[in-house]
Automatic annotation (TrEMBL):
This is Glycosyltransferase RgtA/B/C/D-like domain-containing protein. The lineage of its organism: Bacteria, Pseudomonadati, Bacteroidota, Chitinophagia, Chitinophagales. Keywords: Membrane, Transmembrane, Transmembrane helix. The chain crosses the membrane at residues 21-46, 66-84, 147-168, 188-212, 264-282, 346-365. It comes from the Bacteria.
């Protein structure tokens, strides 16, 4: 199933690339009638010389895991059925107050006024999600922004459990199936997924980068996929820059040594260019960075802040991510049984959680309000990757796929 898994990653990255090219052409003053063919040509080149060139080196042994595909289909149908009652007409608060509002700006000829809405619109946030919506909103002016925004939001949500399932179904159908239905029936995961927020998209791209490093592709093409996914994460939310930096630190050898830096640089060039143009040419100063002051040092020594943040994280995990407690416990038991230290993928996620923790420590905002309005979403960004890492440990190394139909 490796090809299907890589196609899912490639579709997500293609959506991110569309948003980047769209924004760069807007910034260059190109009229929309000229943007459409350029975006089309860029996506065609990406698919032909990037995706297709990679896929031809991915072996297809002719097997079609019939039983596992039935499980996948049932899991996806369950996800649709469970998420439908949770869907809101205009999305969640951040959807209509930030992401879809930004898309409406970008879909208009006066899109630069987006950056004047400093008080409530967060114009310093990267534009991957609203960029995708705005591009199709210009092509389909008869459709509501919310209807267009819902499609990529739902796809990003759907891709996450499917990607994890495809990665591990060949090693342990039990673990893969459990993860699939766990996420497909998790109310919090589904609620955020259909809310049209950017957090699920960021979770998907971070997961893609981690999954890419598990692939063995000719010419180290997995490095290019990971780099492109990290670039998309950076263009999705400001937190994506933090996560990408930590990821590169932990996977420095795999990403940069042995000449692999060339693949990394080529794949991340467009996201970095887009982010630099956006940050230096259009976006106002980030509110968190702008708010740092002398009080920051007092925050670092305020033990009550640490206690409050830890309590918030713990309560959120208990309320919204209860499955993680058992997963981490099983991960630890397996490590002890095999006499292994936790893998660097697990240590990387712990480091990401610690980075988010410290962001709250130095935050200039009212801490209780800041935690209440964002802690659950920041943890949501990391949970799919954490589930992926735990599943990797529990699935073992064997190939226990059954009910396989072979061609001819």
């Amino acid at each position: 199933m490796q090809r299907t898994l890589l196609y899912i990653m490639s579709i997500g990255i293609a959506a991110g690339a569309l948003s980047m090219v769209f924004f760069l052409l807007l910034a260059a003053g190109v009229p929309f009638v000229g943007i459409v063919p350029v975006v089309g040509i860029a996506l065609w080149a990406y698919w032909k010389y990037g995706v297709a060139a990679t896929m031809k080196w991915v072996e297809d042994d002719g097997s079609r895991p019939f039983f596992s595909l039935i499980i996948l289909a049932v899991g996806m149908a369950t996800m649709v059925a469970k998420s439908y009652p949770l869907t809101e007409r205009y999305g969640g608060w951040d959807a209509w107050a930030i992401w879809n509002l930004q898309a409406k700006y970008l879909a208009s000829d006066t899109w630069r006024t987006l950056f004047l809405n400093v008080r409530h619109g967060h114009p310093d946030y990267p534009l991957l999600v609203p960029g995708i919506t705005a591009f199709f909103a210009r092509i389909l002016p008869m459709c509501r922004i919310e209807a267009i925004a819902f499609v990529p939001a739902f796809c990003f949500m759907l891709f996450i459990p499917v990607l994890i399932y495809l990665q591990y179904a060949g090693r342990s159908i039990i673990v893969a199936t459990y993860v699939l239905f766990m996420l497909a029936t998790d109310k919090f995961f589904l609620t955020l997924g259909v809310s049209m927020y950017a957090d699920t998209a960021l979770a998907f791209f971070f997961l893609c980068a981690l999954a890419a490093m598990k692939q063995q592709l000719a010419g180290n093409r997995q490095v290019a996929i990971a780099a492109a996914a990290l670039g998309c994460a950076m263009w999705t939310k400001n937190e994506g820059v933090v996560l990408s930096a930590i990821f590169c630190l932990f996977y420095f050898r795999e990403l940069f040594l042995g000449g692999r830096y060339k693949y990394f640089a080529a794949a991340i060039a467009l996201p970095v260019l887009t982010l630099v143009v956006f940050k230096l040419g259009f976006a106002p100063a980030n509110d968190m960075a702008h708010g740092l002051s002398g009080d920051t040092w007092h925050h670092l020594t305020d033990m009550e802040r640490y206690r409050q943040i830890f309590t918030s994280f713990s309560d959120n995990i208990e309320k919204n991510f209860g499955y993680i407690r058992m997963g981490v416990l099983l991960y630890g038991i397996v490590c002890l049984w095999r006499r292994q230290w936790p893998g660097k993928d697990m240590l990387m996620i712990v480091c990401c959680v610690a980075a988010y923790f410290m962001i709250y420590v130095v935050s200039f905002m009212d801490l209780q309000w800041h935690l209440l309005t964002s802690a659950d979403r920041l943890l949501h960004q990391l949970m799919p990757a954490l589930v992926f890492v735990i599943a990797d440990k529990l699935a073992g190394n064997g190939n226990r796929m059954s009910f396989v139909i072979r061609r001819g």
